[in-house]
Design a protein that fits this description.
Blueprint (H helix, E strand, L loop, with lengths): L3 E2 L44 E3 L6 E3 L11 H10 L14 H10 L1 H7 L3 H8 L9 E4 L1 H11 L3 E2 L4 E2 L1 H4 L9 H9 L12 E3 L51 E2 L2 E2 H30 L6 H4 L19 H18 L6 H9 L7 E2 L2 H5 L5 H13 L18 E3 L8 E3 L5 H15 L2 E4 L2 E4 H4 L16 H4 L27 H4 L9 H24 L4 E2 H28 L8 H30 L5 H37 L22 H14 L4 H19 L18 H12 L5 E6 L8 H5 L12 H9 L2 H4 L8 H9 L7 E3 L15 E3 L13 H13 L11 H4 L3 E4 L4 E10 L6 H22 L3 E4 L3 H4 L5 H20 L5 H14 L6 H27 L5 H32 L4 H33 L5 H11 L11
Parallel strand pairs: 1-4, 4-7, 10-15
Antiparallel strand pairs: 2-3, 5-6, 8-9, 11-12, 13-14, 16-20, 16-21, 17-18, 19-20
Length: 1115
């Protein structure tokens, strides 16, 4: 049967336009009401002319063609509320009060989501006029105006536009015509019969299309309702915000500016250096004068060869330095060792109290950092952030399934993953996971025992965001229906967002002595761990992984120096073994002490860092290095004496009971020492080699500075996984399929007065709210998400509360007798609206009214009658204090855009904090942004500063302790350049390694520098050659060679973090340390090394005068 739609409301008034005829109800009673239903099914009315069909369970009105009938008094109030814009007075109409109540219940969903923009809801309500036949003639002007007023209205609880919930598709694909087509289509699950809309501004088939007056979303209504807010009406916003342009890269002539500057600087240095070398060479050709001339000339009063040694004219600093060194020589020559083993055992006992920090928050975030303070505030007011377990499901099938939508349009290809068979398999998997039972301490534990259930105890279903739960985990899920819905509430009572459920729907060493050296290293590490465990300082995995390597690096070379110095030494006449070892220790221990003490001070100063991982490492490392030094000059020296006795008695190493024949074991210099003394040192210090070395290493320094700003910042979480870990596939799929980022909360700290209009307007995003309110600023930021990383409009409990409490809504009801809350699903005639249907009652609640109804809103479970209940979405978002009489802290949640790499997370943190500061400035009340990853990525906001500070403090400490810093700065800069070349990012792990490289640099350089300073050769070149010959072999064998075995083992590790941050950086540390200490440092000393200390030279001559070692002074 065809019925036309025209006239006025299906209510035949005199003068109604349309087909002429007597005044009678030409449509079955209130059948016209069903043309504007956009929510759930009609509830039955008591009208005797209604019936239900068995197939659809929808309410149909029986045929009635009698005259219009007057309403009861309360019916006219309902009619005025439901069909605004006409003065019905006491006219007779074609519906009764029960049908009007049914209509009002059916309009609750669009009321809840569209009434926040009064113009939009008014226009929608007038869509019900002029119903005469089933074919509905609607003016195109009216259609466009209604859509224009509604297209931007937001649904705060679901972070989407309301039309996404009322149009059968995403709001971006909804337009003026297909929205009305969807509302009138039988396939939407609500319309009981098909209605065909006809869009035209001109009369069609004798019917005048409905073109009632509409309101633009920027216009206030005649009843005093204000214009829509910017959030719900883009026309009220003004121009769309434009992100500031990215700063252009610094280039000179199209080349990176830093590269050009450093290249020019290097060229300038080469010109000056070459000129200096040539000038010095010409000067030496004319006048050959040794820096030791005044000292060696016996006729000079300054000569060391003078008959009166008291005439040596040394400066005050030189005499002070000689006395200090003599003091250390005497102290270490008489060093005792009896208590060393006892002290180590006592210190190691602290290992019983050892605690290992595995909490990443404790490891990477300082307790006093901004992110940590904000996290603690969030946890204390809203509870800790829940953990997420995620499954990513894909399929190998490639053949899409074509799907034809219910509205006219092209065929849509669906991914094979969305086929019915696969979805049912996924459903089986989900149900199996929900039914998992584990046993813990003799008790059964299910998923419901540990999951997040926001509506507990009323609803104990777990929060599961899946495509299955989008359809409430029913077996009909694969029948792709498009019912009108409140944003797809899952079984747990909260919304299931499609973008979360579906992703993008758019040599010379002795064996026994060597073993002893290793045991000493392990003992020093154990003692350090034990002492700090006594002090209740927890250690980290970085400490366990790095410190043994560090102590081995800085300690083994000391062992090599002691052993090789003993091997090369000749016992003096009348000197016993213990005296010889004491004398050797007195010679080498000052150098060992200075290097170890400077490293210890540098590491302890590194503990000033705010980064817990770096601070803990520095504390443990500093103490371990110093204990290692003490054990070396005590325990190891004692073991060396025992080994020397074994050697004197010609007994085998380790197998001490086996005695060899006489003269089978002799002392030799060793091949490595001979190579350094006769070949390597003379070659490196040749006149033509030295300038080349300087030019190459200064070039390396220039390159390092040029690329220092190109090192990536952050730690890729994939590096923490082994190469064959399944988690790597998870990360890969996460990057490929993830459609949204992490949730971000804008937290309003307690103290804001939500009772007042000023306090509400500073936060909310609806009608009457400030243009720079919290919700509005976050909404504006979401418009330029590529720049701000804010993806969506925030969920606003305050705006939803205002919609919930409106008297037009069925959400807020109380029992008339008790005043207790009455849920919308309760059918009880004693339940009445919370607020009166008056102009005052329609305003926002303020004062005591605001706080009286707010606890009801936060306890209301959403249901088909009221989707605005705040229990599921906002129960934890508002901290009610003072016995529910005040609002404390509260948060407004949205999401970041997709974040895949460390720079994305760092940018998101920066932008969120900038936005929060802008909100704070606008509100005059503190607001901060919080997301679960902020505590881990905050360190990268200051990582450059922390790196510079730690390196500078470490180097300054080394400089103060040793007073000689030659070559150290160059190595640290070179380490940064190698990080860039090898793709090593700057983070806490690499920062620890950089700090460690400063410590190891002392080992590579300090021994050679000290040997140079006490040398008595005639000029700097010969002094550098002597220092390199005597100490170079010990440094090379003690650090360089002993490290390569361990480093190569790291290269075979399956852990990528070991391959990148340990193998690559450790290899760079050893290679750069060896080249700078054994190549560049001696050459640099030969040019600008410190002059000889005349007091030390005189003391050396006096000490060895008349002994067999006197000839060694002339080397």
């Amino acid at each position: 049967m065809g019925v036309g739609l025209g006239g006025v409301n299906g209510i035949s008034f005199p003068g109604a336009q349309g087909r002429k005829g007597p005044s009678k109800c030409v449509i079955s009673d209130a059948k016209w009401q069903q043309l504007i239903l956009m929510s759930l099914s009609l509830r039955p009315s008591s009208n005797k002319h209604q019936r239900k069909t068995e197939q659809t369970q929808s309410t149909y009105n029986c045929n009635y063609t009698g005259p219009p009938q007057p309403l009861q008094p309360e019916g006219y109030e309902l009619l005025d509320e439901l069909c605004p814009g006409l003065d019905y007075d006491n006219r007779a109409i074609c519906c009764n009060v029960d049908q009007l109540r049914t209509l009002k219940g059916s309009l609750q969903l669009p009321l809840q989501f569209l009434s926040r923009c009064p113009a939009c809801f008014f226009n929608l309500m007038t869509l019900g006029k002029n119903v005469v036949e089933v074919q509905y003639f609607i003016g195109q002007r009216f259609t466009n105006a209604m859509y224009s007023a509604c297209k931007d209205v937001q649904a705060p609880s679901s972070n989407v536009k309301a039309l996404s919930l009322l149009c059968g598709k995403d709001a971006s694909q909804c337009n003026a015509t297909n929205w009305i087509q969807y509302l009138f289509d039988i396939n939407n699950g609500q319309t009981p019969f098909s209605i065909v809309p006809k869009f035209s501004d001109d009369p069609v088939s004798g019917f005048n299309p409905m073109n009632n007056h509409t309101f633009n979303c920027t216009e206030p209504l005649e009843d005093g309702s204000g214009a829509c807010s910017c959030q719900d009406c883009t026309q009220a916003c003004g121009p769309k915000p434009v992100p500031p342009p990215q700063p252009p890269p610094w280039v000179i002539l199209g080349i990176d500016g830093m590269v050009v500057v450093m290249w020019l600087s290097y060229m300038g240095f080469l010109l000056i250096f070459v000129g200096f070398v040539v000038g010095a060479w010409c000067y030496r050709k004319r006048t050959i004068m040794s820096e030791y001339g005044p000292i060696l000339d016996s006729s000079s009063p300054l000569s060391l060869n003078s008959d009166d040694p008291d005439q040596v004219n040394a400066s005050c600093c030189e005499r002070l330095g000689e006395r200090f060194e003599n003091f250390m020589r005497v102290v270490f020559s008489s060093w005792g060792h009896s208590a060393s083993v006892i002290l180590v055992a006592a210190a190691s006992g602290g290992l019983f109290y050892m605690r290992i920090t595995t909490d990443p928050v404790e490891l990477w975030s300082s307790p006093s950092s901004q992110a940590r303070v904000e996290k603690d505030y969030f946890d204390s007011h809203f509870g800790p952030f829940f953990r997420t377990a995620q499954l990513i499901i894909t399929t190998n099938l490639t053949e899409p399934e074509n799907y034809k939508p219910f509205l006219p349009g092209p065929v849509i290809p669906f991914h094979p993953l969305l086929t019915k068979a696969i979805l049912h398999e996924v459903l089986d998997l989900q149900l199996d996971i929900e039914n998992i039972v584990a046993t813990y301490e003799g008790q059964n534990v299910t998923l419901q025992d540990i999951c997040l259930a926001p509506l507990a105890p009323y609803n104990n279903n777990c929060t599961i965001l899946s495509v299955l739960n989008y359809f409430k985990t029913c077996t009909c899920l694969s029948e792709r229906h498009h019912a009108l819905h409140d944003p797809c509430l899952g079984t747990f009572g909260g919304p299931v967002f499609p973008w979360l459920a579906l992703g993008g729907y758019d040599g010379g060493f002795k064996d026994l002595v060597g073993i002893a050296g290793i045991l000493i290293v392990l003992s020093s590490v154990a003692a350090s761990l034990g002492i700090f465990s006594y002090l209740n300082v927890p250690l980290t995995l970085i400490v366990i992984e790095v410190i043994p390597f560090l102590v081995l690096a800085v300690g083994v070379d000391n062992i090599f120096i002691i052993v090789q110095t003993y091997q090369r030494d000749e016992r003096m006449p009348q000197e016993e073994l213990h005296q010889q070892i004491g004398r050797i220790l007195g010679d080498v221990a000052p150098s060992m002490f200075l290097s170890s003490f400077s490293e210890t001070v540098a590491f302890f100063l590194g503990a000033l860092s705010n980064m817990p991982a770096v601070r803990t490492f520095s504390l443990f490392a500093g103490l371990a290095v110093f204990i290692d030094f003490l054990l070396q000059i005590s325990c190891f020296v004692s073991l060396l004496g025992l080994d020397a006795k074994r050697q004197q008695e010609n007994r085998l190493d380790i197998l001490c009971c086996v005695k060899l024949r006489e003269s089978q074991e002799t002392k030799t210099d060793g091949c490595l020492f001979s190579f350094f003394k006769k070949i390597y040192a003379p070659f490196v210090l040749k006149d033509w080699v030295r300038p080349i070395v300087v030019a190459v290493f200064v070039g390396m320094l220039s390159f390092s500075i040029a690329v220092v700003n190109k090192v990536d910042i952050g730690l890729d979480q994939k590096l923490s996984m082994p190469d064959d870990s399944y988690v790597l596939d998870y990360f890969k799929n996460l990057s490929a399929y993830l459609h949204t980022g992490a949730p971000v909360y804008f937290v309003v700290e307690d103290g804001l007065d939500y009772r007042s209009l000023d306090g509400q307007n500073a936060v909310c995003g609806g009608v009457g709210c400030n243009n720079n309110s919290l919700v509005q600023q976050v909404y504006t930021a979401s418009q330029i998400s590529n720049y701000t990383t804010i993806a969506f409009t925030p969920s606003s409990w305050l705006d939803d509360y205002f919609d919930w409490v409106k008297p037009q809504s069925t959400c807020c009801r109380v029992y008339n007798s008790t005043g207790a809350f009455c849920n919308a699903s309760v059918a009880d005639p004693s339940c009445v609206h919370c607020r009166p249907m008056s102009s005052e009652g329609k305003k926002r609640p303020t004062g005591n009214d605001f706080m009286h109804f707010l606890p009801m809103f936060l306890s209301d479970n959403p249901n088909p009658k009221c989707g605005k209940g705040g229990h599921a979405a906002y129960a934890s978002a508002v901290d009610l204090i003072q016995n529910n009489t005040e609002v404390g802290a509260s948060y407004f949640m949205t999401y970041h855009t997709i974040l895949k790499e460390s720079p994305d997370y760092i940018k998101a943190l920066k932008m969120a904090r900038t936005l929060a500061q802008n909100i704070t400035d606008a509100m005059g009340h503190h607001v901060f942004a919080y997301s679960v990853f902020y505590v881990f990525y905050e360190q990268y906001l200051t990582i450059i500063y922390d790196t510079a500070l730690n390196l500078c403090v470490s180097l300054a400490a080394i400089f103060v302790v040793t007073t000689v810093l030659l070559g150290f700065e160059l190595w640290s800069a070179a380490m940064v350049s190698f990080m860039w070349l090898w793709g090593i990012s700057l983070n806490a792990v690499s920062l620890v390694n950089l700090v460690m490289s400063c410590g190891i640099s002392v080992e590579f350089c300090s021994h050679i520098v000290r040997a140079f300073s006490i040398s008595v050769r005639s000029n700097r070149v010969e002094r550098a050659e002597e220092a390199l010959a005597h100490m170079g072999s010990s440094v090379f064998s003690g650090i360089t060679l002993t490290k390569f075995g361990g480093i190569l083992i790291l290269a075979l590790s399956k852990s990528q973090i070991f391959q990148v941050f340990y193998f690559r950086m450790y290899l760079a540390i050893v290679l750069l340390g060896a080249t700078h200490g054994l190549i560049f440092l001696p050459v640099l000393l030969s040019y600008i090394g410190p002059s000889v200390n005349k007091a030390k030279v005189a003391a050396t001559n006096r000490r060895f005068a008349g002994t067999e070692r006197e000839h060694l002074l002339n080397y």
